[in-house]
């Protein structure tokens, strides 16, 4: 059976049932920016494509003793994102 994508009915994102774990839904587009400050701290930011503002963010970190087990590759820290 073959069917064109344009023939498949689509359910709009915001009209689908809202789950109990969903606090907020947005139909706009965005992207995630990851920033590694060092070997133990990572910042995750969700930015809207329309204005570049941060709409959500959180950090992931780990204990210093866990960092000592990592091997640093000697690469210079850099980012192309702003």
From TrEMBL:
SUPFAM superfamilies: Metallo-dependent phosphatases. InterPro entries: Metallo-depent_PP-like (IPR029052), PAPs_C (IPR025733). It comes from the Eukaryota. Residues 15-57 form the Purple acid phosphatase C-terminal domain. Coiled coil: none annotated. This is Purple acid phosphatase C-terminal domain-containing protein. It comes from Ziziphus jujuba var. spinosa. The lineage of its organism: Eukaryota, Viridiplantae, Streptophyta, Embryophyta, Tracheophyta.
